[in-house]
Write a structure and sequence with these properties.
The protein has 245 residues and is an all-alpha fold. It has nine helices and no strands. The two termini are 28 Å apart.
């Protein structure tokens, strides 16, 4: 079996006795979720991301230069909300610092609350999402994705950040056999990019062909599934549960 396929298989069906146990496939699910939620925010909330903060900084630069359809205030609100979410997530995971399963569980429960609240606002308000509704959604989703990113950073599973793909794709190319590198984790890196692409496609398709609230509904379903798995895994005492493994 080619190395890329073997690494992809090991990411999707990991060794439960390995250093990261069941975390890789769970983080892939969260990567799909990130793509869906950012598709919703960019397409319906006015050219703003709630997870990709690099994009928001760039958008703010566009807005400062006078480019139309970009909002300095929306980008600033997204950045501030994400930062507040990351702070909340940091506090949450540090309270369970001795167990990675509980770190993920606690963070996901908080994130689920924020994303569910955003879904309810979306359903109740109806589109288009402007004014106070728009900024309420940016705040709620920014908080939720900030919590997620703080937890993922604490878990520290290589190449599965659920958000940032620039370094992941750079590593896939720079470490490849073509570049005379070791070619390590290329399967995992490809899966990470594919998960983000799939999430963005599903989110955009749902917005353009279905109902605007569908991406957030799907996100809540995914969060419920991963939160349930994390709750079950929080009881484990396997080696992967210890930070720094």
């Amino acid at each position: 079996m080619p190395m890329v396929l073997r690494e992809a298989r090991d990411t999707l069906v990991p060794d439960m006795a390995g250093p990261h146990g069941p975390l890789p496939p769970m983080l892939l699910v969260l990567t799909v979720l990130t793509g869906m939620v950012d598709a919703f925010s960019y397409l319906l909330l006015g050219h703003v991301f709630v997870s990709n903060m690099t994009g928001n900084v760039v958008f703010m630069g566009f807005a400062l230069a006078g480019a139309p359809t970009f909002s300095k205030f929306a980008s600033a609100v997204a950045l501030a909300s994400f930062a507040a979410g990351a702070l909340t997530g940091g506090i949450t995971v540090h309270l369970a610092r001795a167990h990675r399963g509980r770190q993920l569980q606690h963070a996901l429960l908080v994130e689920t609350a924020f994303v569910t609240a955003a879904m309810i606002v979306t359903l109740v308000s109806g589109g288009p999402y402007t004014g106070g509704v728009r900024f309420t959604l940016i705040v709620l989703l920014g908080l939720g994705l900030g919590v997620q990113n703080a937890a993922v950073r604490a878990l520290a599973v290589p190449d599965l950040t659920t958000t940032v793909l620039t370094r992941t794709l750079t590593g896939a190319m720079a470490d490849s056999r073509l570049a005379k590198g070791p070619g390590s984790r290329s399967g995992r890196r490809v899966l990470s990019a594919a998960a983000m692409l799939a999430g963005a496609f599903l989110g955009a398709f749902a917005v353009l062909r279905g109902h605007p609230a569908l991406p957030l509904l799907f996100a809540v379903i995914l969060l419920a599934a991963v939160s349930t798995a994390a709750t079950l895994l929080a009881r484990s005492d396997a080696p992967w549960t210890r930070p720094g493994t």
